C-alpha cells in the first residue's frame, strides 16, 4: 500500500486545483481509440445491461430516478447545462446500490435456489443495505460486516431489512476480509461489489446492475459531453463507462471519476500505472467512497477507458450538500461527490482546459445517494432532510 508524494504526483501530471484542495489527473493510461472488444465485454456489456434492466423493471416500486436540471449551477459554472441524476429516490434505499447488490442476490438465487443459502458482504453502508434488502425480498438470510467508523444510523438501517450486522475493527478493506473469512468458515456466499483473484462473477453482476443508471439517463436527457461519477472501488464508474464505451467508442462522453482525498485508490493507481491500494484509516465523510483497494474488474476498464480522476477533500462535499439543499434536494455525503468534483474543475482554468470543459459543455453528475444517515446530514447541512425536501417530519 502506498500514497505518492506531492513531487511524484506533480511529475505524473496531477493538477492541483487552487483554493479547493482538489487534485485532477488526466488519465495517463487513457486509450480512447481502443475498441471495446471481447475482453471488455466479458466483464460488462450492453447485452448484460439490457438483461439487468429488464429484470429490475419487474421489481415492485421500480421507476427511473429523476434527472434534475441545475440551470443556476450551469450559469455560474460557465457551461451549457448541468444535470443531476437523483439516486436518493431509488426504491426505499435512497441509493443507487439497490441496482447492484439486490440484482446480484436475485441472480444468485435464480442460479442456486435458496436452500442453505446465506449471503454476506462488507459495507460502508449502502451496499450492505442493498444486499440486505435484496435478501429479504427473496427470503434469504444475510450477515453484513461493517467497520468501526460506519455510523450507528447506517448499521441500524441495514438491520431494519432483517440482516445481522457484525462490526469489526479497521477500515472497509478490513471488513471485506472479515466477511470473506466468515464466508469460508460457514459456507456462506459473498455478494461483494469488489472483485479479487478467483472472485469475479458476483461483482460483475453488481456492476452490470449499476450500468442500468446509464441506460435510464440516456432516455431521460440529451447526451452529455461530460460525466462526473463517483469512484469508491470503481464499480459504478466502470458500469457507466462500459455502457458508453461499447455503444459510442471514441465519441463517448468524457468520463471523470471522483474520489475522497483520503481514499483515492483509483487516482493513485492511475499515477502508478497499475492496480494500487492506499493505506490509512480512509476517514472521510464520504463514507460510501472510503475504499482503499480498487476492484480488479473495475480497474481493468477504468485504466484504459476513464478520461480523468479527481480527488476532493471533505469540505467540497459538504459545500455541495448545502448547495443541493438550496434546490430542495437532500443529497448525501457520497451522493454529491461527482457534483463537487465538477464544481472544483469548473473554477480552475487549467483543469477546465485539461477536460475540454467549455461554454458548450453539457455535464451529467450522478447523485448516488440521498440522506442515508439523517443525523449526519443534519450536522453538515444544519437542517433535517425532510425539512429540505418540504416533507413532514
Automatic annotation (TrEMBL):
Required cofactor(s): pyridoxal 5'-phosphate
SUPFAM superfamilies in the cross-refs: Tryptophan synthase beta subunit-like PLP-dependent enzymes (SSF53686)
Keywords: Lyase, Pyridoxal phosphate
Single GO MF descriptor: pyridoxal phosphate binding
Keyword Lyase: yes
InterPro entries: DiNH2opropionate_NH3_lyase, TrpB-like_PALP, TrpB-like_PALP_sf
Superkingdom: Bacteria
Gene3D superfamilies: 3.40.50.1100
Keyword Lyase applies: yes
Domain (Tryptophan synthase beta chain-like PALP): residue spans on this chain: 60-347
Pfam family membership, one: PALP
EC number: 4.3.1.15
The protein, known as: Diaminopropionate ammonia-lyase
Species annotation: Phreatobacter stygius
Amino acid at each position: 500500500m502506498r500514497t505518492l508524494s506531492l513531487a511524484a504526483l506533480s511529475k505524473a501530471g496531477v493538477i492541483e486545483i487552487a483554493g479547493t484542495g482538489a487534485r485532477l489527473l488526466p488519465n495517463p493510461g487513457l486509450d480512447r481509440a481502443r475498441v471495446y472488444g471481447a475482453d471488455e465485454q466479458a466483464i460488462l456489456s450492453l447485452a448484460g445491461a439490457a438483461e439487468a434492466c429488464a429484470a429490475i423493471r419487474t421489481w415492485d416500486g421500480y421507476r427511473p430516478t429523476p434527472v434534475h436540471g441545475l440551470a443556476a449551477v450551469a450559469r455560474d459554472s460557465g457551461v451549457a447545462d448541468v444535470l443531476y441524476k437523483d439516486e436518493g429516490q431509488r426504491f426505499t434505499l435512497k441509493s443507487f446500490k439497490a441496482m447492484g447488490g439486490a440484482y446480484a442476490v436475485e441472480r444468485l438465487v435464480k442460479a442456486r435456489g435458496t436452500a442453505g443459502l446465506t449471503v454476506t458482504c462488507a459495507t460502508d453502508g449502502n451496499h450492505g443495505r442493498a444486499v440486505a434488502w435484496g435478501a429479504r425480498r427473496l427470503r434469504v438470510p444475510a450477515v453484513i460486516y461493517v467497520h468501526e467508523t460506519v455510523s450507528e444510523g447506517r448499521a441500524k438501517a441495514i438491520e431494519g431489512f432483517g440482516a445481522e450486522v457484525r462490526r469489526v475493527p479497521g477500515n472497509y478493506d478490513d471488513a471485506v476480509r472479515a466477511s470473506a473469512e466468515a464466508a469460508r468458515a460457514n459456507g456462506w456466499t459473498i455478494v461483494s461489489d469488489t472483485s479479487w483473484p478467483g472472485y469475479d462473477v458476483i461483482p460483475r453482476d453488481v456492476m452490470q446492475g449499476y450500468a442500468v443508471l446509464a441506460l435510464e439517463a440516456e432516455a431521460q436527457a440529451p447526451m452529455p459531453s461530460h460525466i462526473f461519477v463517483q469512484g469508491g472501488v470503481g464499480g459504478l464508474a466502470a458500469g457507466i463507462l462500459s455502457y458508453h464505451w461499447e455503444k459510442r467508442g471514441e465519441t463517448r462522453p468524457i468520463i471523470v471519476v471522483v474520489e475522497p482525498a483520503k481514499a483515492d485508490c483509483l487516482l493513485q493507481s492511475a499515477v502508478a500505472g497499475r492496480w494500487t491500494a492506499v493505506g490509512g484509516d480512509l476517514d472521510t465523510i464520504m463514507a460510501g467512497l472510503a475504499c482503499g483497494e480498487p476492484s480488479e474488474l473495475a480497474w481493468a476498464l477504468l485504466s484504459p477507458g476513464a478520461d480523468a480522476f479527481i480527488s476532493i477533500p471533505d469540505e467540497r462535499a459538504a459545500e455541495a450538500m448545502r448547495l443541493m439543499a438550496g434546490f430542495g434536494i437532500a443529497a448525501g455525503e457520497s451522493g454529491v461527490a461527482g457534483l463537487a468534483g465538477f464544481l472544483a474543475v469548473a473554477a480552475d482554468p487549467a483543469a477546465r482546459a485539461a477536460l475540454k470543459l467549455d461554454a458548450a459543455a453539457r455535464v451529467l453528475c450522478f447523485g448516488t445517494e440521498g440522506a442515508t444517515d439523517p443525523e449526519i446530514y443534519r450536522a453538515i447541512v444544519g437542517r433535517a432532510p425532510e425539512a429540505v425536501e418540504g416533507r413532514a417530519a
